[in-house]
Design the sequence.
């Protein structure tokens, strides 16, 4: 098992790269329809939301992941911040081959959803690194842990906040084939995180059958996976818009991530 953290990112709508599937270069500039969606009228999440997932490779358990909005109050001057934490870890079986302990944190303004601080602590098979990004939306600047500064759009997101930001959109009038893009700052560069809407579908998970919106994440502008079925994410088709399932096809079989428990939902 490699790059367990990919599936934590897939679950958060941020499939940026994968060693299992080689993306194919395609000419899509004339076919992409980037949809500018209005904000949802009903808040899709609140403090205290906690989502638990299991990861599996075929019949083998792969690990677990948790994404939560901490039920706490953080302040930056007169601004109230939401503290969002995502963690992923391999199972005891896989620890012997490729131990993973990853943690992602973001602090975002509750009213504007501008990120202010992003922390990433990665430990995968002995490979370790940390990221510490400070966002200054009023200056359109991001400062990294190595004291570099980057010019960014005012509403740029980090890799964790991007999915929550996308959840604030109103998908009522989205059409099959539409693509939604969120400008994000990932690994020291501005990265357009895009997802293509494939329609609706009922998904069966441990908690039952859930009506979902089906998306395929685009690797980057101008690059997609070989087929739309190679990497798929299902989001609940309701006011909560929580990630229910993600699946990536690999050379032999597939790797899946499924929702096992949801607490503190807003709706």
Sequence:
């Amino acid at each position: 098992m490699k790059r367990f953290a990919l599936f934590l990112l897939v679950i958060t709508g941020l499939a940026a790269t994968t060693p299992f599937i080689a993306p194919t270069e395609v000419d899509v500039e004339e076919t992409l329809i980037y949809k500018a969606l209005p904000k949802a009228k009903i808040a899709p999440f609140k403090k205290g939301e906690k989502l638990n997932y299991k990861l599996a490779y075929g019949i083998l358990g792969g690990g677990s992941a948790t994404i939560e909005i901490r039920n706490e109050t953080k302040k930056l001057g007169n601004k109230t911040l939401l503290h969002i934490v995502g963690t992923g870890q391999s199972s005891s079986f896989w620890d012997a081959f490729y131990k993973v302990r990853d943690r992602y944190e973001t602090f975002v303004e509750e009213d504007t959803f501008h990120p202010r601080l992003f922390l990433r602590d990665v430990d995968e098979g002995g490979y370790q690194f940390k990221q510490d990004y400070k966002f200054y939306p009023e200056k359109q600047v991001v400062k990294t842990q190595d004291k570099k500064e980057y010019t960014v759009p005012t509403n740029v997101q980090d890799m964790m906040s991007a999915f929550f930001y996308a959840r604030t959109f109103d998908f009522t009038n989205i059409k099959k084939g539409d693509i939604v893009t969120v400008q994000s700052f990932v690994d020291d560069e501005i990265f357009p995180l895009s997802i293509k809407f494939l329609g609706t579908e009922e998904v069966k998970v441990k908690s039952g059958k859930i009506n979902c919106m089906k998306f395929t994440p685009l690797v980057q502008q101008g690059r997609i996976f070989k087929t739309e079925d190679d990497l798929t994410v299902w989001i609940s088709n309701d006011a909560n818009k929580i990630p229910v399932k993600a699946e990536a096809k690999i050379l032999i079989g597939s790797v899946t991530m499924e929702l096992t428990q949801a607490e503190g939902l807003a709706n």
Q: What stands out?
A: The chain has three helices and 17 strands. The radius of gyration is 18 Å.
